Amino acid sequence: LLQVFMPLNILGFIYREVRRCLIDVESMFKLLGHRSKLTICPQPLAVADDFDALRFDRVSFSYDGRRKVLNNVSFDIPKGSKVALVGSSGSGKSTLGRLLFRFYDVDSGAVRFGDENINQLDVDDWRQQLGVVPQDTVLFNETLGANLRYGDPTCSDEELAEAIAHADLTQFIAKLPDGLETMVGERGLKLSGGEKQRVSIARMLLKKPQIMIFDEATSALDSRSEQSILAALASVAKDHTSLVIAHRLSTIVDADNIVVLHEGRVVEQGSHQQLLALKQHYFAMWNLQQQSQQSD
Ligand code: ATP
C-alpha cells in the first residue's frame, strides 16, 4: 500500500508546487503591467533580520525615461508603524509599490531597508520579506484550508487558526457546512471581494513577512465587508510594519502617517487629524469622499 501511496503523495506535492509557481507568476505579471527593467547586483547582500525603518529617500522614477512619474519622493515607514499612501488616480501609489518589490529600479534616490539600499540585496531574499494583500486575490480550485495554507504550507493547525482569527474569518468558516474542507475557486464556492481579501490577509500572516503591503481594492465593498476588513487590518497592523495603498480614506484614519501624493510628489504627510487641520489636499479628498458616501 505504501508503494502506491508514496508516489501519489510526491505527485500531489509536485502538482501543488507547480500550481503555486503559476499563481505567483500570474500575480506578478498583473502587478508589473509589462516587463521588468531590473539590474541585478553581482554580489548581493543577505537581508538583515531587523531594521529600524523602511525609507523612500528622494526617489524619482520614469517608466519611459521621459515623463517623471515619481519626483523626489521621501517618506519613512518606521518598524511597527502603519503608513498609508493616498492620492488621486495616476499619482504614483502603485508605482511606489512596484519599486518596493524591485520590479523596477529607481532612476535616482534610493529605497532603504534600515541602512541598506534594497538594490544591494538579494532580490528573492528581499521579496520574501514582503507580504502583499493584492487588490484581487487569486483562489485556486482547492479546499479553503489549502488556499489559506498557501501562505505557509508547513504551518500547524494552531498557526492556521490564529491567522484565520486575525483575518476575521472564524465566523465565516464556522457557518460553512464543510468548514475548511469547503471547495473554493472557479469550480467551488465563490467568495466575495471582501472575503477573498481576508483570505489574503490570513495567507500573508502565515508567511510572516517583515513588511506588509495592503493594496486596497478600488471597487467599493459593502459596509459590512469594509468593517470586517478594517477589523482584520487593525488586528494585523497592530504588531507589524505595514504600508496601505488606500482608495477609501475611511480605512486609514488610524494610520500613524498618511502620505499624500499628487502628480508623483509628496504634497503632505501627517496623521488624519493633522492633515484635516491643514485644509488642503487631504482635507479636500476627505470632504469629497464624505459627500459621495452621503449621496449613495
Ligand atoms: P490608481 O489609484 O489609479 O491605481 P496610482 O496612483 O497607483 O493610480 P500608478 O499606477 O502608479 O498610479 O501610475 C502613475 C503614472 O504612471 C500614471 O500616469 C500611469 O499612467 C503611469 N504608468 C503606470 N504604469 C505604467 C507602465 N507600466 N508603463 C508606463 N506608464 C505607467
From TrEMBL:
Its main location: membrane. The keyword Transport does not apply. It is found in: Cell membrane. Residues 54-288 form the ABC transporter domain. The chain crosses the membrane at residues 1-15. Keywords: ATP-binding, Membrane, Nucleotide-binding, Transmembrane, Transmembrane helix. The keyword Membrane applies. This is ATM1-type heavy metal exporter. It comes from Sinobacterium norvegicum. The gene is atm1.
